[in-house]
Design goal:
The chain has about 350 residues and is an alpha+beta fold. The chain is about 35% helix and about 20% strand. The protein has eleven helices and 18 strands. Strands 1-2-3-4 form a four-stranded antiparallel β-sheet. α1 runs antiparallel to α2.
């Protein structure tokens, strides 16, 4: 078959050369007809841009910024940022996604410097900046650097000598707040020092980074060991490792105290649950996984309840404590506003 095609190709080449057709024109004319399934890359004129693309049957493939990206055609139509499809002031789409043909394909694709233009069957034109596609592609997101998290134990944390942030720096400077949030994102805990030991100043501190979450315990809780509520936290008893509010619709995480009766699974699954619980508890209670700290007036501790469990030893004497719950979304949003990849 190949010999037949090459012979045919040679014959056509001679005919074309007799008629004065250039070799470049021959390549364009004949490889499309001889090899209709061949893939053709479209390259930019500028070598410095280093961009090439292919139009496949079911997706668009782009090579740019050392990244190979693939885009579904429906995705490309749905994310159009033209005035008729997207409100740039509200950052909300005007296009009805359900109205896009699931078999849609662009009629034409062209590149003008750093902008790709897709013309759709109905004549609508969608344009994308190449850098926008890199930032918003699946492949680009995989390469995106996120704020690191450190899996730590007591030795690692103590060796890191993580600095606390001063109260005034935390409240009055973005640098102080950013340093605090970097530590908080890294380890799941962070400290602020020299806070006036009042509920009002603690509340002011919390509001610097987030909305305070109103709960059944109120906006701010301020308590001592008087058992004023039916909760072990309001006693002098030890509290094992736990996170709070597991009985909420949006709980913070694991809590060994506040488990409801296990009555929704059969006995054999229950036994597997207890086996897993034992494995987890053994790890949590290893001394190397415990970091002990003594709080004192003026020192405020923030804990990420999605990462770090907390507890306390039993005690004697008088103890006062105030605190609150913060909305996680707002904490992370504050970090992003300061340039952190939260």
């Amino acid at each position: 078959m190949w010999c037949h095609r090459l012979s045919h190709l040679q014959s056509r080449l001679q005919n074309l050369l007799r008629r004065g057709v250039t070799c470049w024109a021959f390549q364009q004319l004949n490889f499309k007809s001889l090899f209709p399934l061949a893939i053709h890359w479209h390259h930019t004129a500028s070598e410095s841009l280093n961009c090439a693309w292919q139009q496949h049957e079911d997706h668009f493939e782009l090579q740019y910024a050392n990244t190979v990206m693939r885009f579904d055609y429906v995705w490309l139509r749905d994310h159009c940022r033209s005035a008729s499809c997207y409100n740039s002031k509200t950052h909300q789409r005007s296009l009805d996604t359900a109205s896009v043909d699931l078999c849609i394909k662009p009629k034409t694709i062209r590149l003008d410097e750093t902008t790709l233009f897709f013309t759709w069957p109905d004549g609508h034109v969608t344009k994308y900046d190449l850098d926008w596609l890199v930032r918003n592609s699946y492949e680009g997101q995989k390469q995106k650097v996120i704020q690191p998290r450190i899996l730590w134990n007591a030795e690692i944390y103590q060796r890191a000598q993580v600095p606390s942030v001063d109260f005034q720096s935390f409240l009055e400077t973005n640098e102080g707040l950013k340093n605090f949030l970097q530590n908080f994102l890294l380890y799941g805990i962070a400290f602020v020092e020299n806070v006036p030991p009042t509920q009002e100043h603690t509340e002011k501190l919390a509001e610097r980074i987030s909305l305070i979450r109103e709960t059944i315990y109120g906006r701010m809780w301020y308590f001592t060991s008087d058992f004023s509520r039916g909760d072990t936290a309001y006693t002098k008893l030890a509290l094992d490792r736990h996170t709070d509010t597991t009985y909420f619709q949006e709980p913070c995480g694991y809590n060994n105290y506040d488990r409801a009766v296990i009555n929704t699974v059969p006995y054999d699954v229950v036994h597997r649950w207890y086996t897993a619980h034992r494995t987890l508890t053994v790890e949590l209670r290893r001394p190397e996984n415990e970091f002990w700290v003594k709080l004192k007036p003026g020192r405020v501790l923030f804990i990420d309840n999605w990462r770090v469990l907390h507890g306390r030893e039993s005690f004697t004497g008088y103890r006062q404590l105030c605190g609150c719950y913060l909305t996680r979304d707002d904490v992370l949003n504050t970090a992003r506003l300061l340039g952190l990849q939260a």
